[in-house]
From TrEMBL:
The protein's name in its UniProt record: General secretion pathway protein E
Originating organism: Candidatus Photodesmus katoptron Akat1
Domain Type II secretion system protein E N1E: 13-76
InterPro entries: GSPE_N1E, T2SS_E_N_sf
Length: 99
C-alpha cells in the first residue's frame, strides 16, 4: 500500500461527530502536508486524543468558526461522495458478474 493511500485511510479514522464536537479536522494543505485545523480553545487533551487516533505528525492551523464549518463540510462531503461512488462501482461490478 502506498504511503499516500495509507494517509487517506488514516484521515478517515477521525469520526465526524468527534471532529464536529471538538472543532478539529484533519486534512492536507495545498503543499500536501498533514494539518490539523482547529477552532480555539485547543487543549492538550484534544491533541493527545487526535494523536492517539491519527498516529502521524501534523501541523496546526487555527480557523475561525465559519472557516472551520466550511472545511469540515468540504472534507466529510468529499468522503461521503467517494464512499457512495465506490458502492455504485461495486454494484455495477456485481451486476456484470451475474450477466
Amino acid at each position: 500500500m502506498s504511503s499516500h493511500l495509507k494517509n487517506i485511510s488514516t484521515i478517515q479514522k477521525l469520526p465526524f461527530s468527534f471532529a464536529n464536537r471538538f472543532k478539529l479536522v484533519f486534512s492536507y494543505n495545498q503543499q500536501n502536508e498533514k494539518v490539523l485545523y482547529y477552532v480555539e480553545p485547543l487543549t492538550i487533551e484534544k491533541l493527545v486524543e487526535v494523536h492517539r487516533v491519527i498516529q502521524v505528525r501534523f501541523t496546526l492551523h487555527k480557523l475561525n468558526q465559519k472557516e472551520f464549518d466550511t472545511k469540515l463540510m468540504q472534507i466529510y462531503q468529499k468522503n461521503a461522495f467517494e464512499a457512495r461512488r465506490l458502492m455504485e462501482d461495486i454494484s455495477l461490478d456485481k451486476n456484470d458478474f451475474f450477466l
